[in-house]
Design brief:
mainly alpha, globular
Length: 376
Amino acid sequence: MKHRNFISPFVFFFLRFASAASFRPYLVLFYQSLSFTGAQIGLLTGIIPLITLVSLPVLTWFADLTKKHKLLLALSLLIAVLGLFVFPYLSSFTLIFIVVALLNIFLAPIGPLSDSATMFMLGDRNELYGHIRLGGTIGFSIASAVVGSLVQNYGLKIAFWSAAVLFFITFLVSQKLVHPSEESETPADMRQAIVLLKNPHLLIFLLISFAGGLSNALVNTYLFPYMKALGARESIMGLALTIGTIAELPILFFVSHFIRKYKAYTLVIFSTAVTCLRFLMLAITTNPVVVLIIQLLNGFTFPLLSVVGVTYADKQAPEGFHATAQVLFNVASIGIGSAVGGFVGGLLFGSVGARGMYLVFFIFITLVLIFVSLVH
């Protein structure tokens, strides 16, 4: 059955990203307000998310086998509502550690499950996923501004309560999503999961996804320290972030045209090539104003990869394991890639400096690009 339902997924993505924008930027500030030590904050922000590298594949694999995708998505959203509602009332590190761990475990499947449902609902027009993803960018931008104003006037607690309300509305909208398992009468076959893991095209794609996630972490984490090292003022830093966000919008809007004209894998390679160019330019420039021009490339890097990657992973998935394919993409990019990028980037930043860090990763990603091109 070809659904071609655009409205429900678009609203879901708008609310999902708005929910994240409402509380994630304020987590460290909340920890600091409780006088947590640097080690405690590092444990909460750095170690706990690694739990999802184990829990996420297990949960979605179980959902694929039992065809309980809608149930898992609903449960994840309701646990998020409950956890964020009580969060501002907690002050004990142990209790916060437990709640944050549960939030990370159950927030993680929301992305892959909604991606899988969206691709199914778009039917034979799944190249329009970029338009749906655009709703997420809009939701994130609006919520960032609105919640920022609320926090300024009412304090940090309002951020978590706002997120809880938005996640509850997201839960209501999630009931309109249709998952592939709801219309499939074929029982999930474990042998198909093994076929997925042995797919050489998917393995190559996951290597590129790892490089993309690593690159995204380097930009998100170290762009401001890099610009500060170049002598940029705070206003220039903020402008660079704004330009990078705006640069995503036309790419997400027109990506469906690109997917129709070119293969998804071709766009994945193109995104990686632009990332190499971006890192090379960051490595050689000494003028912070030039960074503003380089930021115009942002839409062609991880934002493009994140959209065409969902499309490519969906096409590589065997019957009954579409959610698992999305999880592998998320784990390779957002999970392992981001963790390695953040950790190794920090070591290089301290030893060879900001420009040296980008030069090293330019060389690494170029080698990855050459390798996958030859193997493919």
